[in-house]
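Late entry, written up from scratch paper. The run itself happened at the end of the previous shift, but nothing got recorded in the book at the time, so transcribing now.
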Amino acid sequence: MGYRFYGWETAVVPAKTKGYKGIETPQDLYDALTKVWCEYTCAPRLRNEWSEDNITLGQCSITAFLVQDIFGGEVYGIQRPGGNYHCYNVVDGAVFDLTSEQFGDEVLSYEDNPIQTREEHFAKEEKRQRYEFLCVSLTKYLEGHIPTSCKK
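Output as recorded:
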């Protein structure tokens, strides 16, 4: 099966932790996150644009740091108009971006971008809370609790 996220073909890195049952590859994580991402995990400034047709919108930083938790590596950021950074992962030389679909046909540059730190991103309380909510929602999903809604 082909995926639509950037770098899916080379994202063949193994999980470094067994903390998330059934997540062995970035593709496994992507499959699970498609059941968990929702408007409440979306960045507040983009929430009114979030839809089931664009589930990766506004999910980049919290997803990239979750990827780092599971697979290791570094989180990098592509500077966007307005000064925000779009986050993606580099693990053992594999560059991939589980939330790249939100940009449609736009081609992003995944080279020579600055490392992003969780301290900087999670200094925003709402972002830290969204990250924690995503982690809890993923755990519940992996334990067999099918999300019927994404209410906090």
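The radius of gyration is 14 Å.
(Scratch paper discarded after transcription.)
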